[in-house]
Design a protein that fits this description.
Blueprint: H1 3-20, H2 35-45, H3 52-68, H4 78-103, H5 113-123, H6 150-153, H7 155-172, H8 178-205, E1 211-219, H9 234-248, E2 253-257, E3 263-268, H10 276-287, E4 292-302, E5 314-315, E6 322-332, E7 337-341, E8 382-384, E9 387-390, H11 400-408, E10 413-418, H12 427-443, E11 447-451, E12 457-459, E13 465-468, E14 475-483, H13 489-493, H14 496-518
Parallel strand pairs: 1-2, 2-4, 3-4, 9-10, 10-11
Antiparallel strand pairs: 1-14, 4-6, 5-6, 6-7, 8-9, 11-12, 12-13
Length: 524
């Protein structure tokens, strides 16, 4: 195979990965998207000239740029994100190739890609450059009737399925006997059909569980670049939320859910009684005592003495006073005010790595958020009456294992609050909306999603969209959701498949290093 042919195959893989992605993609293409790249790797591993690292970089750079180009609308750091994530991906693919050459340079060696890739996706949940947006299993957010078994495996199960099918299809192209070929084809057909058939049966038979609970969702539709973060409009934004809620509020309404950062007044935790927004919302809850308000807002707290060197600590001018800034979710009722702080911070926008300390007091956005926010180490629920609710904030809703912690700790409803207006009318807010379908299936929890603008809506426990709003339209919607307290296998055990892949990867790396040091050649 000539060089240009290998390059063409790498480009085809990148285009296929892009062509599968929500919301306009064709999900079934994911089962062949990696085949051209695997075919190149197979030829190179058999002695043909070529650079697996750079060819795979072409594939993954195309996928990253074409799928997440819209990140540029929020931050110029998008360029760095595309390049870094592509380098991470092609490094994983090259390490797989190297391990295969050392351990098992035949068709069985292709399966070594599975633990490596899944371990990489798992790392993307925790390290500083966290970016689970392109986890392969996310592709089925537009085909939720195929993956009802995510309540057992989570997104990791989808990634495993995709990698298995791609590898098996690629292996069919390797010279083999007719009998072996027939068996391989049969296995591919079964591996494709059985999960889909089983899922569709589960979808048709599943009955939602839990107590009927009336929830209102507000889409306030403020322009985050101009209107929402203007000090002159702080109170107006909160009043707009209350006015919209009044349109649909009834004696049966239990929750009103508004968006991330809807309160921009700045909430000092030691002066909560002075927050004007809480007074405005308090008048609503006094009028509707059976209802509470869930809303997002930035909050601040003083840094304890002796903790001034903590990386998220911010100095006030040239004084000796330091404070923390948080992205928070608030629950307000007639009796008290509760809050939780965002844990999964958006890289480069809300979190600057410590090794980039020179950017500590700056932001890679257009100056709205500055420096690194302080985060909570773990998620926790907020309570109202008999309900425990989990409130993932924006980016957190892309982390399946993280969201499952709310359900594991007793949340019977999930409320996603977000501000998707930064990206404009692009695939970004649409992809973000789709991920809530997967969180609903994984935990069998109904979800109410409020976006400042973008798309707000309700999801049932099967991942169906019950009701949704339109982009760039002020709106308020209401639905009766089932508040389920039963825990799924995934809610109880989280990303166990990813953890298994991490241990397998650790063993493979040790074996590869050992064989490299001792110079043993693999038995083909």
């Amino acid at each position: 195979m000539k060089k240009y042919q290998k390059l063409l195959m790498a480009i085809i893989s990148g285009l296929l990965l892009w062509a599968t992605w929500p919301v306009r993609g064709v999900a079934p293409l994911i089962f062949i998207a990696l085949v051209p790249l695997l075919y190149i790797e197979e030829r190179i591993s058999k002695g043909e000239k070529g650079h697996v690292f750079w060819l795979s970089f072409v594939t993954f750079l195309l996928w990253n740029v074409l799928t997440t180009w819209w990140v540029w609308n929020a931050t110029p750091a998008a360029i760095l994100a595309w390049i870094l994530n592509s380098l991470f991906m092609c490094t994983v693919f090259w390490v797989f190739h190297f391990t295969k050459m050392k351990l098992c340079n035949n068709q069985w060696g292709n399966f070594l890609l599975i633990p490596y890739w899944m371990a990489f996706e798992f790392l993307h949940y925790y390290w500083a450059a966290k970016w689970p947006w392109l986890s392969l299993g996310n592709v089925f957010s537009t085909a939720t009737t195929w993956v009802q078994w995510y309540s057992v495996t989570g997104v990791a199960g989808g990634t495993l399925w995709i990698l298995l099918v791609n590898i098996l299809i690629n292996n069919i192209s390797i010279p083999q006997s007719k009998k072996t070929l027939k068996w391989n084809v049969a296995i591919v057909i079964l591996l494709l059909a059985l999960p889909i058939i089983g899922s569709k049966i589960a979808y048709s038979q599943y009955e939602e569980k839990g107590q009927d609970t009336e929830v209102i969702v507000i889409q306030q539709n403020c322009d985050p670049w101009n209107e929402q973060f203007d000090p002159d409009t702080y109170d107006n934004v909160v009043r707009k939320n209350v006015e919209l809620a009044e349109k649909l509020a009834s004696p049966q309404t239990r929750f009103v859910v508004s968006s991330e950062s809807a309160i921009e007044e700045g909430i000092w935790l030691d002066r909560i009684n002075e927050v004007r927004a809480f007074d405005i919302i308090g008048k609503f809850t006094e009028k509707h005592p059976n209802c509470c308000f869930v809303i997002g807002g930035f909050s601040y707290d003083w840094v304890p003495q002796g903790m001034e060197d903590d990386f998220p600590a911010r100095q006030i001018g040239n004084s000796n006073r330091y404070y923390y800034a948080y992205n928070s979710a608030w629950l307000i009722d007639t009796l008290n005010v509760q809050h939780r702080n965002k844990s999964k911070l958006t890289p480069a926008v809300e979190a600057i790595p410590e090794w980039m300390g020179f950017l500590k007091h700056f932001s890679l956005t257009v100056g709205i958020a500055r420096g690194t926010l302080k985060s909570d180490p773990y998620p926790h629920n907020m309570s109202f009456g008999e309900h425990q609710v989990g409130v993932p904030i924006c980016y957190e809703s892309a982390f399946g294992g993280y969201v499952s912690e709310f359900a594991k700790k007793g949340a019977d409803l999930l409320f996603v609050i977000t501000n998707d207006g930064w990206w404009g009318d692009t695939p970004g807010y649409k992809q973000h909306f789709e991920f809530s379908k997967l969180r609903a299936i994984e935990n069998r929890r109904c979800i109410a999603r409020s976006a400042n603008t973008g798309r707000s809506g309700f999801f049932n426990q099967k991942g169906d969209v019950i009701q949704s709003t339109e982009y760039w339209k002020e709106d308020v919607i209401k639905a009766t959701l089932k508040a389920n307290t039963e825990k799924t296998f995934y809610s109880k055990h989280g990303d166990y498949l990813y953890r298994i892949a991490m241990w397998m990867t650790f063993g493979l790396l040790l074996a590869t290093m050992a064989l490299t040091l001792f110079g043993r050649k693999p038995n083909p």
